[in-house]
Amino acid sequence: MKRLFDNTTLSNMNLKNRFFRSATWEAMADNKGHMTEKLYNVYENLAKGGVGTIITGYAYVTEDEQPNPRMMGIYNDSFIEEYKAFTDRIHKFDTNIILQIAYGGSQTNFNVGERIILGPSAVAHSIYGVTPKEATKEEIRGLVESFADASLRAKKSGFDGVQFHAAHGYIYSQFLSPHYNKRTDEYGGNIENRARIIFETLAAVREKVGTGFPVLIKLNCSDFIEDGFSFEDCKYVCKRLEELGIDAIEISGVVGAKTEDRSVKEKGLKYLENESYFRKYAAEIAEEVNVPVILVGGNRSLTLMNDILDNTKIQYFSLSRPFLREFDLINRWGGEDNSKAKCISCGKCIDVQGNSCIFSRNKGMD
């Protein structure tokens, strides 16, 4: 029988348990994306707290494209030495650390008038109202190379792997979505074409880092809008990524869709059946691909996660906000207290001055 505290392997990584800290924008880097002592402390506390694998907050891959303030960067070689020190601090606790890399696109309200923002097509963002410049093929090739260069820097820095952020409305998510992607060339139209930029990115990254370096991806199971990226699209992309050598797939869902999944996030997780709210999609994908599937979204209860582990092929569980409330949650669960996470999913942890649980802030804690 599988256990949440099993030792497992993923590519060449040894994992001490099945828990991931899902990528979380901390808003604690400096204005150029470099580390601060406050950010070091956040990650060191997470590692001390027992989680097996940490995925960093998203790091921007080109210097001129920062979708949010005070996010981590990986756009040139100046990051390598400080990230070596960073990964060394995390590895002391037998914890893996994976760098999430991203290009934001039109899902932003940060310095919008001061930079060129690329997108698959010149379609205004449905929430932010930003209309991007349609990327040329040359700009697409440049973006692919930026991801590959960032991945090589991550490897040189001692990270255990990288994760492409292709979910939640950022640029790769927009390429996948017919709502935002109106192209008529080889990067638009059917799902093979809409996903082409991701497939090319994986190939370019593999050429730079080799086959022994784990490469993961985060995908929406669906955009939950009529003209968006569908669940059938997602299954197709996952199967193609398996063929192309992806090492693991984290299944999430769109943030901002007007669906029951959004209502769960807005109202909080009041009942067990509303936890782990993308599990039915992740479970179906896990049946169809021979690649480890990581479930994220509303994971709060050991009881439910154990049930999912026992009754589906989902292998790993990723949490974000619960670690803002309890950085040592996994140590607690590994001891005698297996009560559900204290996070109430109120969403008030988001703060551009540094994301943290409101209850901890009220106590004067970091």
TrEMBL record:
Keywords: Flavoprotein, Oxidoreductase. Coiled coil: none annotated. Gene3D superfamilies: Aldolase class I. Residues 4-332 form the NADH:flavin oxidoreductase/NADH oxidase N-terminal domain. It is an enzyme of class 1 (oxidoreductase). One of its GO terms (molecular function) is oxidoreductase activity. Its EC number is 1.-.-.-. This is NADH oxidase. It comes from Anaerotignum neopropionicum.
